[in-house]
Amino acid sequence: MTEAAWPYPRHIAHRGAGKLAPENTLAAFRHGASFGYRMFEFDVKLSGDGKAVLMHDATLDRTTSGSGRVDALALGELAALDAGSWHGPAFAGEPVPTLAAIARYTQANGFLVNIEIKPVPGAEYRTGAAVALDALSLWKDAAVPPLLSSFSETALEAARLAAPGLPRALLLDRLPPDWLGRLHRLGCVALDANHRELDAAVIGQAHAAGFKVLCYTVNDPARAADLLDWGLDGLITDAVDTIAPDRTGA
């Protein structure tokens, strides 16, 4: 993916709307969109019967009315859970969405997505391959493909083999000495790093090697401004109400 072809906006809403709505739900996407955001980052893993659903944690307890492992339940059982009440009564009854539902919503509204492949432990390869194949099918008619990312290099390698045409970004909480080599080896188009690891030099180094740079999770407007001034290509934020997205172009 060349610089001229980079189609993604610089501001990306984290898990839909950050902390202002129940994360990884359609309600969150709608709320994030109300602040002008047009690209959304969210987490995807597999249900017990291999269906792609939005969920950050390996367990259900924090963000749903269920408990235990996400992959212990089939899609129909996950669909019966309440994924909104934990955040507040206004969101009571909000369901756990499927990747297919998010694909329909975002494409109908002209939004772009960053799908974080978030496998439960032990399911890295299977999840990477399945989510990539689903994304390839669900966005087959989209003008702009989803950006796939993961902390799991195993999942990204599986995604590369399953859907080599979809762009990928490697998530890194700390930058190891061989971070550029890892990006090359996985065929990534971008680095997606903890913002604390980035400065103008690192961003410049990535750009010189042909990679875009995204970062998470930036909630301070002054820090966001510095990163964007240094040439950051994508800023993932919870602060959708205080960090205004670009209104024109990418």
Automatic annotation (TrEMBL):
<dbReference type="InterPro" id="IPR017946">
    <property type="entry name" value="PLC-like_Pdiesterase_TIM-brl"/>
</dbReference>
<dbReference type="InterPro" id="IPR030395">
    <property type="entry name" value="GP_PDE_dom"/>
</dbReference>
<protein>
    <submittedName>
        <fullName>Glycerophosphoryl diester phosphodiesterase</fullName>
    </submittedName>
</protein>
<feature type="domain" description="GP-PDE">
    <location>
        <begin position="9"/>
        <end position="247"/>
    </location>
</feature>
<dbReference type="GO" id="GO:0008081">
    <property type="term" value="F:phosphoric diester hydrolase activity"/>
</dbReference>
<dbReference type="GO" id="GO:0006629">
    <property type="term" value="P:lipid metabolic process"/>
</dbReference>
<dbReference type="Pfam" id="PF03009">
    <property type="entry name" value="GDPD"/>
</dbReference>
